[in-house]
TrEMBL record:
Gene3D superfamilies: Alanine racemase, Lyase, Ornithine Decarboxylase, Chain A, domain 1, Mur ligase, C-terminal domain, Mur-like, catalytic domain, MurE/MurF, N-terminal domain. CDD domains: PLPDE_III_AR (cd00430). It comes from Bacteroides helcogenes (strain ATCC 35417 / DSM 20613 / JCM 6297 / CCUG 15421 / P 36-108). Substrate binds at R600, M775. This is Alanine racemase.
Length: 831
């Protein structure tokens, strides 16, 4: 749906500068996601850390002409649109708060529709319930829903904006992290049907109590006609009672027959769950093709919504039986013939295609691979084929896709719209056949695989995928960004950040981590040695890089790749100056390290006068920053010492700064310092462990980033009197089922974990290590666990905190993380 710019000016109450006529179809908040410049309205949002107005000149150059911006931002970036200026053909809509304006516009947009709107909130399961409702209800009506998990103060307005004349039902998620946020979301979504999935501890840090959080979530349901929740959860039931909603309630219950939706039986079979229920005095049954508790809970919430929307019981039964798992992430996998595969089986609509293409485009910039899209028919959009594929073709062009492979009859009829290298197939089998027979060759390409479920692209991915070593380290880039933002939230807006990616990014793999951090505009990256830095440069990382342990033999590498060394002694400084002078280099940035108590590396504060004199007497290098390192900032026990370090640092660093006219950045905080000594931020902080999801203070897990996984190779029954493994160490006290898994000490699984000292998880159950851990394999006890060969085993990660292992080993999580051997394949994904 389009809006004239005049209409928008009125809705958001903006002062308009510029009088270019314009029609707006697209709202944009992330400049990297631009697709349709002419019809886009860009909101220059300001956050603690950033100001979207920074990107206006670039967006203007790419054709965007309409901007919502605050007065302060216009001043800050000097984007003044008077006639004759560089922005003379633009409209600037000046408001006091661009985020509020975005929300206001979405609110107004929402007002125009009378269709049912489902609002989903809760701690877990929001996205799955949303997607399942879509699977259950989309046969009868056109559904608009949040792309992926767009559930924030920004994501919700962008989701609601997608509603149009065809929409027969809308499903939106709402997520909050702070008190007060839900009111804004309620205003935008205005749900008529509310679903509260459940309440857990996530995002608890800003809430006083669980009850406060629950009540806040319930604010979403203020004007709902009906509210759906788990009536057996007493805590939730109490909160609902307290919140005095006027809505009808469909609380489902497995215990209380008086509840509106009574769940009589939940019977778990091998691979499905049979559920019977009574609603309005009618008894019915359905079979859910999942057996875990979370899926059962999610299905019951969906059931209640379907019943309320009067979907007939036979249809519910039939469609519940066909529910598909929801893949919530873009998976990046290594393909055959030098290809990189991006697998997005999440869903298939224009919004998620846009996001996935954007992801592909950004990944492609550094690896030089050809950009290819494999796309099936996009189903159930309510749009006519030719409009739909015209838009797809526009997206494909704007993301500079070089080759398209279409699957399905509809996309095939629009082949002529794609004037790039192309091929079309009637169905997935035909495409797979062409690949297997060598008629279609995919080589050195980065390929986005995106298909509606019906097309079964999983099988296609399997064909294209390179089979990997069964042991992998999964790295969740989204979680890492959440951690970055968590720490950013603790900083003053102007404080800069160095992200530590040394030791292969604490084991997570430096390139992908560095690339993601660079995209999120961190100020510096830091590695230990020059070779780590040059590898990053060769892979296309352009951010500033600090070398913490510069080797004297590697100065040339540092100059060549612009890697900025730390200097910690006169010996090192002299050698560096000499080498730089020899190469004719001037003003090469260096980072001066002071020893304030660690007694490892660094100039003593008393060295300052001599250091200043030496630095001033040459122009080969120039101090860019000065820093020191805390000894025990994680522990109150050392607080007096830490404060002395701060005082010492303050004094010595001021002395250095005063000797120079240019700004020298000062920094001392590591992750623990950021949390515990916010007053010591100076100009910059150095974030390490916290970025990887482990709290530096109590080792609790923030957002878990790395998960080490493997698979069961073989299972055997072993009599009680036998032993398992080398040296007959693995004694059994009963007849046991023993599974062998392909991970050993050469992969980084410490031998001290063997002989029952620790465990891993098999299908969610603890399986202890039996006998000695071998070099490449080890054995675990699965006697009481329902499992089979090929099942996944978690060594540490999302469900088994790494600290369980580091505690057993009497070490710190840093050591366990960095011990995962390089032969273990890293797989990256983004939520
Ligand atoms: C590793 C390192 C950090 C980061 O420390 P964390 O405890 O992981 O946050 C900061 N500064 C220096 C000098 C380091 O070597």
């Amino acid at each position: 749906m389009s809006y004239s710019i005049e209409n928008i000016v009125e809705i958001i109450g903006a002062q308009r500068i510029g009088n270019v006529s314009a029609t707006i179809d697209w709202l944009l908040t992330d400049s990297r996601s631009l697709s349709f410049p002419e019809e886009t309205l860009f909101f220059a949002l300001t956050t603690k850390r950033n100001d979207g107005a920074r990107y206006i000149p670039d967006l203007y150059a790419r054709g965007v002409r309409n901007f919502v911006v605050s007065k302060e931002s216009m001043k800050r970036f000097d984007v003044q649109p008077f006639s004759g200026s560089q922005f003379s053909t633009a409209n600037f809509l000046v408001v006091s708060n661009p985020l509020k304006a975005l929300q206001k516009l979405a609110e107004q947009h929402r007002e125009q529709f009378q269709v049912p709107v489902i609002g989903i909130t809760g701690s877990n399961g929001k996205t799955i319930v949303k997607e399942w409702l879509h699977q259950l209800l989309s046969a009868e009506r056109v559904i608009v829903r949040s792309p992926r998990s767009y559930n924030s103060q920004i994501g919700v307005p962008l989701s609601v904006w997608q509603m149009n004349e065809q929409s027969g039902l809308a499903i939106f998620e709402a997520g909050i992290s702070e008190p007060g946020e839900m009111r804004a979301l309620q205003n935008i979504i205005k749900p008529t049907i509310g679903i509260l999935t459940n309440i857990g501890g996530a995002h608890q840090e800003n809430f006083f109590s669980l009850q406060e959080k629950c009540m806040e979530k319930l604010a979403l349901f203020k004007n709902c006609d009906v509210v759906i929740y788990n009536g057996d959860d007493e805590f939730i039931s109490n909160c609902v009672a307290k919140s005095m909603l006027s809505a009808r309630e469909i609380a489902w219950s497995r215990k209380d027959m008086e509840r509106p939706l009574y769940i009589g039986k939940v019977e778990k079979k091998d691979d499905c769950t049979v559920i019977s229920y009574r609603y309005l005095d009618m008894d019915n049954t359905f079979t859910l093709p999942f057996i875990d508790d979370a899926s059962v809970e999610n299905s019951l919430n969906c059931l209640a919504a379907c019943l309320y929307l009067m979907l007939p019981a036979e249809k519910i039964t039939e469609r519940m039986g066909r529910l598909e798992p929801v893949a919530m992430r873009l998976e990046v996998k290594e393909g055959k013939n030098g290809c990189v595969l991006i697998n997005d089986s999440y869903n298939s609509d224009l919004g998620s295609l846009d996001i996935a293409l954007n992801f592909l485009y950004r990944r492609s910039l550094s690896n030089g691979l050809k950009r290819t899209l494999i796309l099936s028919d996009i189903l159930e959009t309510g749009q006519n084929t030719s409009t739909l594929y015209r838009q797809v073709a526009q997206l494909v062009n704007s993301r500079k896709i070089e080759r398209i492979i279409g699957v399905g009859s509809e996309i095939s009829t629009c082949a002529a719209r794609f004037n790039i290298e192309n091929a079309f197939y009637p169905n997935t089998d035909a495409l797979m056949n062409a690949v297997v027979k060598g008629k279609l060759r995919l080589e050195n390409e980065i390929i986005l695989i995106k298909g509606a479920r019906k097309f079964g692209f999983d099988a296609l991915t399997e064909v294209l995928e390179k089979k990997v070593h069964e042991t992998i380290l999964e790295v969740n880039l989204g979680a890492m960004i959440a951690n970055l933002n968590y720490y950013r939230g603790k900083l003053k807006p102007e404080t800069k950040i160095v992200c530590m990616v040394k030791a292969s990014a604490y084991g997570a793999g430096s390139y992908e981590i560095a690339k993601t951090l660079q995209e999120h505009r961190v100020d510096y990256l830091a590695v230990a040695v020059a070779d780590e830095g040059s590898e990053l440069r060769k892979a296309g990382i352009t951010a500033s890089i600090i070398i913490m342990n510069p080797e004297m033999t590697a100065f040339k590498t540092m100059f060549d790749y612009k890697l900025e060394p730390e200097v910690y002694s006169f010996g090192l400084l002299e050698a560096l100056i000499k080498e730089a002078e020899k190469e004719g280099i001037t003003n090469f940035p260096v980072h001066v390290k002071l020893d304030t108590g660690m007694h490892r590396l660094g100039f003593a504060p008393e060295d300052m006068p001599r250091l200043i004199e030496r630095l001033k007497g040459q122009n080969a290098v120039i101090p860019r920053s000065v820093f020191s390192h805390f000894v025990g900032s994680d522990s109150p026990q050392f607080d007096a010492f830490t404060r002395r370090q701060i005082v010492m640092f303050e004094k010595a660093s001021v002395e250095l700064q005063e000797a120079f006219a240019h700004k020298i950045l000062r920094h001392i905080c590591n992750s623990a310092g950021i949390e515990r000594f916010p007053g010591a931020q100076f100009d910059m902080v150095r974030l390490g462990l916290g970025l990887y999801g482990i709290s530096p203070i109590d080792n609790s897990i923030l957002n878990n980033v790395s998960t080490l996984k493997t698979t069961i190779l073989q299972i055997r029954d072993v009599p009680a009197e036998d032993t398992v493994g080398y040296s007959r160490k693995g004694h059994l006290n009963r007849p046991s089922r023993i599974a062998a898994i392909p991970i050993g000490y050469a992969d980084g699984l410490n031998r001290h974990l063997g002989n029952g000292h620790a465990y891993c998880l098999v299908n969610g159950c603890k399986a202890s290590y039996v006998g000695n851990i071998c070099m490449d394999v080890c054995m675990i006890d699965v006697t009481d666990i329902d499992c089979k060969e090929g099942d996944t085993v978690e060594i540490f990660g999302d469900h088994l905190p790494i600290t369980v292992l580091s505690d057993v080993l009497d070490t710190i999580p840093y050591e366990v993380l960095t011990s995962v051997s390089t032969r273990v394949k890293r797989i990256y994904y983004q939520d």
